[in-house]
Amino acid sequence: NLYKTSTMTDAHERSFIMVKPDGVQRGIVGEIIKRFEQRGFKLVALKMVTPTRVLLEQHYDEHQGKKFFEPLLQYIGSGPVVAMVWEGLNVVSVGRKMLGATDPAKSEPGTIRGDFAIVTGRNIAHGSDSDKSAKREIDLWFRADELAVWTNSAERWIYE
Ligand code: IDP
To answer: Residue 76: its pLDDT value, please?
Structure first.
């Protein structure tokens, strides 16, 4: 296939992106989806769920024992979140850039947190921080049959 050259081969990286309850309450779900779509990433899975404590303990396992762990679980478990899987070249690192710094005060304007949030404890959205976390988080939040198999017809205009 003429179009599936250089960059296409790496274009199947995936990241777990989640709109947190504050993003849902503040009506920023569409805005966040829009930014990932506009960038050229491919939506592979999406669902609205109120996460259980057990799920969140696993998701935030690395933070167990920290001062903000309980408040964090209360916050993320307080209402529905929108859990998503996005696919594309470097989607993990580019997704983190699009989100901005963990502390919105340090996020550049133009990033999701830099445009819509003020404090770390209400920072709107989550994105996997490495390929390894992405795999772990996608496995945690989704069953295999919840991941859509489809070809984006625009991909030959997104990749060279
Ligand atoms: P990340 O979400 O940017 O990867 P992490 O350090 O993994 O950042 O922290 C996970 C989440 O925990 C943050 O997004 C934020 O919601 C929350 N969090 C982290 N540090 C603090 C804190 O000092 N106070 C309140 N919440 C925090």
So the answer is: 98
120, 122, 130, 132: residue to mutate for ligand 1 pocket, most atoms within 8 A of CB: 120
Tell which residue, 15, 19, 47, 49, has the closest CA to residue 34. 19
In contact, 102 and 72? CB cutoff 8 Å: no
| Contact (Cβ atoms closer than 8 angstroms) between residue 85 and residue 16 | yes
Distance from C-alpha of 17 to C-alpha of 20, rounded to nearest angstrom: 10
Between the CA of 86 and the centroid of ligand 1 the distance, in Å, is 21
Residue from 89, 91, 94, 85 nearest 160 by CA: 89
**pTM of the entire predicted model:** 0.95
Q: 125: which 2 tokens?
A: 């959205």
Q: Is 129 in the pocket of ligand 1 (CB under 6 A)?
A: yes
In ligand 1, the atom with minimum distance to the C-alpha of 20 is: 16
Q: What amino acid is encoded at 124 in this protein?
A: I
Over residues 52-62, the pLDDT tens digits come to 999 999 999 99
Task: Determine whether the shortest distance from the Cβ of 102 to ligand 1 is under 6 A.
Answer: yes
Beta strands in the chain (DSSP E): 14-19, 42-49, 81-87, 125-127
CA-nearest residue for atom 26, ligand 1, is 121
